[in-house]
Design goal:
The protein has 379 residues and is an alpha+beta fold. It is built from four helices and 28 strands.
Length: 379
């Protein structure tokens, strides 16, 4: 998972810029974004935003629709054909052959051959249409409720909610005209059929049939201000976790039908979340790291003197969580759970994700492309 291209509310500035463009320019940009990715001479040096294993194969995604593959533990790489040119922010392989990648423009890609080829399952046009329909339905429900209630306190509450819902319809209608603009920032599949994609401005979509159909799934979650969602994770017990902007942190015990919000933990963004056995870690802005031992109900902060933001990470074979972030920072939980140890990559470039290869080496990806952890210096 990765969020270097969409860290917080600056996404709103990008949306504002889009609104200022002429419709013809918007459609031209959209048409370009949904052209096949260009083949690059050295894609490993481009900005890469996520990396994962598909069995023993390594797959990384990044800017301009780049997806690269390695079958020799990262010694050599080749670029896969991809039907879009948008930045790809995250990917997940629940099985070695089955993978999904998400990115800008509401893009969801699918591979059924371990990343060798990709097809477009969903895009921002689909997302905009679904959000408009959902908003219109909510207006109707609130109007009906307002007509039926006589309680003054409830009337006032419903009037405010209806006003917000009507504004949401206006925003959704504008989004239809603008075209696909908002990015997905993470994707998670529980098995070959059931998956989720989350992203900017409260985008939350799910599928029950391997992505043949994606459906908006925001009814069961409290996010009235449409803050961004950054990361998803699942525990071995089926419990789901979701983190986001402005301290958003949720858990779900019913596979995403409803979400319980963790309140008053932290006001800053939480860019990553990881489950390791009975331990749960959430991390993000300015190096804040939190740990839960009870399924996300209660949390404690882990001491970290390195106040660099943490954007992504991975679980290691020895039972630790590795986190990466700005300034080339790499942190790992200690085996005894008593704190953190760290490294800094000499490039000092921002890092967005990491993976452990079949041979045990750790590869990092970020703004400088593909980098080995072996080059980093211990703190």
């Amino acid at each position: 998972m990765a969020c270097l291209n969409a860290l917080a509310r600056p996404l709103g500035l990008a949306a504002l810029a889009l609104c200022c463009l002429l419709p013809a320019q918007l459609r031209a940009a959209e048409d370009f974004a949904f052209l096949p990715a260009v083949t690059f001479d050295d894609p490993t040096s481009m900005q890469l935003l996520d990396i994962a294993r598909a069995g023993d194969r390594l797959v990384a995604v990044g800017e301009r629709g780049v997806i690269i593959l390695s079958d020799d533990d990262g010694a050599s790489w080749r670029q896969a054909p991809v039907p879009v040119s948008v930045a790809l922010t995250a990917l997940h392989f629940p099985q070695p052959e089955l993978g999904w990648a998400v990115g800008h423009g509401g893009t969801i890609l699918h591979s059924n051959d371990g990343g060798e080829s990709w097809s477009l399952q969903f895009d921002g046009n689909d997302a905009n249409r679904q959000y408009l329909a959902w908003s219109q339905k909510r207006v109707g429900m609130l109007e009906d409720a307002l007509a039926e209630t006589e309680d003054e306190a409830q009337l006032e509450e419903l009037e405010y909610a209806l006003e917000d819902a009507r504004f949401a319809v206006e925003d959704a209608s504008d989004a239809i005209d603008i075209g696909p603009a908002d990015p997905f920032l993470d994707v998670l599949f529980l098995d070959a059929s059931n998956g989720f994609a989350v992203g900017a401005y409260g985008m939350l979509y799910r599928t029950h049939n391997g992505g043949s159909d994606w459906e908006i799934a925001i009814a069961g979650i409290d996010n009235a201000y449409r803050y961004h969602y950054y990361a998803l994770a699942a525990g071995a017990d089926g419990r789901l976790y979701l983190s986001g902007e402005a301290g958003l942190l949720y858990y779900s015990g019913d596979t995403g039908s409803s979400w319980e919000r963790v309140d008053d933990l932290y006001d800053g963004s939480l860019f990553g979340i990881a489950v390791l056995g009975g331990k749960l870690y959430a991390y993000g802005l300015r190096g804040h790291v939190f740990r839960s031992l009870d399924g996300g109900v209660s949390w404690e902060e882990v001491d970290n003197p390195e106040r660099y933001s943490l954007y992504g990470g991975t679980k290691l074979a020895d039972g630790q969580v590795l986190m990466v972030g700005s300034g080339g920072l790499v942190l790992a939980t200690k085996a005894d759970g008593g704190g953190l140890r760290g490294w800094r990559h000499p490039s000092r470039s921002s890092l967005s994700s990491a993976v452990q290869t079949a041979s045990g080496d750790i590869l990092l990806v970020g703004m400088a492309g593909l980098l080995p952890l072996s080059e980093a210096e211990p703190l």
